[in-house]
Amino acid sequence: MVSNSCISQVIGILLDMGLPFQQIKLGEVSLEQKMSTIQELDFQFKLKQVGLDLIKEKKMLLSEKIKLIVIQMVHHSDEQIKTNFSSYLSEQTNLNYTYLSNVFHAENNMSIQQFIILHKVERIKELLLEREMNLSEISYKMHYSSIAHLSNQFKKTTGFSPSQFRKMAGAHRIALEDIGKITF
After folding, report:
1. Rounded mean pLDDT of the chain?
2. pTM recorded for the entire structure
3. pLDDT per residue as tens digits for the range 65-78
4. What is the CATH architecture of 59-178?
5. How far is residue 49's CA from residue 60's CA, in Å, rounded to a whole number?
6. Where do the CATH 1.10.10.60 domains begin and end in the chain?
């Protein structure tokens, strides 16, 4: 689950199935009691109908956790992390970054850095379209060392400069759920 709409869909499925839950947050569901095998199969089927999957394998779960940490930092937090992102991910997961990187690449066919860039570019698109900040402010907010670095990465990823994109009024936005399904 990478968005609030995903959470809403899962809540709806659980309510329809009469399964009481304690907590639902991005990527996690805590049920009041364990599902029966039939309930689990039914739940998986209903998730697939709305484009979601039940993840049980440990490496896939770790990969999803990494994605959620990236999404939280890029899209939902104004907090400036004090260390580089690799150290931050290691702290959040209590695992070595090399291990995280290898697992993520094996599960997603892209590096964590590529995934971060895709999300940062998508967030930059949002900020450009809101028109509340200039490029210098966006560069600072998104933790770029310079406007030139942001512009180069944006153009390399989208094919457009930030100013060209702003003029196009967002014709090339990508849903959060679909970011990372694009391969380099």
Report:
1. 85
2. 0.66
3. 999 999 988 888 77
4. Orthogonal Bundle (1.10)
5. 20
6. 59-178
